[in-house]
Every structure is written in C-alpha cells, then in structure tokens.
C-alpha cells in the first residue's frame, strides 16, 4: 500500500484531499505545518494557526488517520519572511505564496514526508498532474491547470521541479470548489462550510504595511503626480537594429524625475508601495484616482498617475534573467535564439495573455501581444501552452 502525507491545513480543500486518498486505498498521514507566526501583526484576536490545527486534528480523527503538527517557523522565517523584507527594501514585490510552495510545502515539508516513509505528498491545490514517457523511456511530469477555472492554482506552483512533481498528488484538481464542499458536507467534515483563508500563505490575516514596518523603518518622502502626456522615455521610438534591441527597449523601465510632475502629497516610505497600487496614497482632489506608476526606493519618491489608463502603468515586454528562470518542463526549455508562442500571466487571477518567449544569452524576454498593466519587478511570470504550465521566472 502506497503511503501519502497530506498537508492538512484545517481548510476544506486539504480535508477532502485526505478523504479522497483514503477512499483510493492509500495509507494516509495528516501533517499540519505551523509556520512563522507573529501576534503583533495579525488582525483582530484571531489566532488562525491554533484554530486551523484544531480543525485539521478533528478532520484526521473523523477520517481515522494519524495526525501530527510540524513546526516549520524557523525555515519559514528564513526562506520567506526575510526574503520578503529584502525584496521590498529593494523596491520589488515578491509573491509569498509561490515562494511558500517552492521553499516550504514542496521542499522542507516534502523532505519530512519522505523521512516518514511516504511515497508521495498531497495538497489541496486546484491543479492536475499528468505523466508521459519520452523517447528514452524517461517519465515526464506535466503541471496542468485545475478543472475549476475560477479556482485554478497552477500559477502558485509555477516553480515546482520535475523531481517535486514526481512525488506529488493533487486529488481535487479534477473537481470544482462546490463539488469539494459537497463531498465534505456528505462526509460530515467540520471544514465543509469553512471560509477560504485569506492573507499571506500560512501567516494569517496580516496588515502588510505594519508587517513590513517591523523591519523597514518609515521614511518620509514625496508623492509626485505625473501627467499622462509626459513622454516616459523622452525620445522618439528609435529604429532598431535587431529584434533583441527592440525587446530590450520595450522591457526597459521608464525613468521619472520629480520635475516631471507635481508634488501632491507625502508617504512614509517608497518601499511600502508597489506598482499599480491605489490604496494608501491618501491624496484627494484628483479627477480620477491616483495609481502608483513607479517607485524609486533610492530617492524615496513615489510616482503616480491618474486613472487605470495612464500610459506609465503599461509595458509590452518583460525580462527574466537566467538565474531566475525556471522550466517545469526542462525538456522544452528554449536555447539562445529560439522563441516560442505561449499564453502567459503576471499575477494569479489574471486571464492568460498571448505572448512570445525569446531566449537570449543571459535570460529570456516575454513579449506580450498587448501592453500589460503594472508589470512588477519581483513578481512571477508563468507561461502555458494549452492547459499546461511550462515554466516561470521572476520579473527583473
């Protein structure tokens, strides 16, 4: 009998995952991960991890499976929290959920599961895995979008490797959320009607500015409003000698100066803000709402523009350096001078966009057919063909 360790989070998705695997004849062990927790930044009196671990225990008892809690707070702080602080300090915007899956669930947690003699780990992610065999008889694992388009979580797993996928099961990927809740209700699982968790992966509900302020000290600076007429590149679009030159130009960040606009307010630190952000600026009196179009953490200036259509929010091309480039399907990885038509997204909920990948020495350009709003350094871009997520990278 194959043994599988389920990451029981105390939510309905992982509860049904454990139930389905038991039904399929696996020997199932429930493991709750206690990750980094700091009461000083969680909202309200809730203690999410205590409540969640209790629910996970009740589910395990109901299913008649062994259950234990593992404390991964040290690794979580080191690999996720410290990384987030460092990235925000540089004016970048990391994605903690993608990192949490790469560094914690499918690395630290997976290793613990294998030490317990498990053949697989399973999570309650809405995605699927497929297996094929190449010409040499080697198994190739594909990461596919979940059947429920509204809940598809393949983006969050965009950094997984072939080795990690080989040891992973996603039992609810073929189901929709209502079907999952129905199974939980029919089997009297306490989590059947439990709301989906919000907030940072495993930290609970957190006020992000306060969370960041613990390490990143407030630092007063100005908010500048840039009119939409300002030519962000201060030049005519040049004639390009090569495709690579054109891609480099389209991927370059606009450079703004305080004199390009007018000072309309103050902020407590450019590192607390991210491109495309609207909330927290506290500047009134504009015809349309202000959006952050660029942050300068060196000079501690936030540049803003009126309305969602402000040209400063849009770029057509982004770059991923080789050291931040990851192929789930290593057999399909592009070599320099090769290109590939894909569908891509730069954030979790974004509908897939048509794009072309161009591999050069040192990295990869993702060239979108349409300009994209708020391409943000530090976030992940992921690319697909059909239902399959082929690879991803951190936006430079």
UniProtKB/TrEMBL annotation:
SUPFAM superfamilies named among the record's database cross-references: Adenine nucleotide alpha hydrolases-like
Region named Interaction with target base in tRNA: 95-97
Entry EC number(s): 2.8.1.13
InterPro entries: MnmA-like, MnmA-like_C, MnmA-like_central, MnmA-like_central_sf, Rossmann-like_a/b/a_fold
Sorted UniProt keywords: ATP-binding, Cytoplasm, Disulfide bond, Nucleotide-binding, RNA-binding, Transferase, tRNA processing, tRNA-binding
Residues annotated as catalytic: 100 (nucleophile), 201 (cysteine persulfide intermediate)
Gene3D superfamilies listed in its UniProt record: Adenine nucleotide alpha hydrolases-like domains, HUPs, Translation factors
Predominant subcellular localization, coarse grouping: cytoplasm
UniProt: ATP binding residues: 7-14, 33, 124
Residue ranges occupied by any tRNA-specific 2-thiouridylase MnmA-like C-terminal domain in the UniProt entry: 324-395
Gene Ontology MF term list: tRNA-uridine 2-sulfurtransferase activity
Subcellular location: Cytoplasm
Domain tRNA-specific 2-thiouridylase MnmA-like central: 252-305
Region (Interaction with tRNA) location: 151-153, 347-348
Broad class of enzyme this protein falls into: transferase
Site (Interaction with tRNA): 125, 379
Function: Catalyzes the 2-thiolation of uridine at the wobble position (U34) of tRNA, leading to the formation of s(2)U34.
Family: Belongs to the MnmA/TRMU family.
Name of the protein described by the UniProt record: tRNA-specific 2-thiouridylase MnmA
Source organism phylogeny: Bacteria, Pseudomonadati, Bacteroidota, Flavobacteriia, Flavobacteriales
The gene coding this protein: mnmA
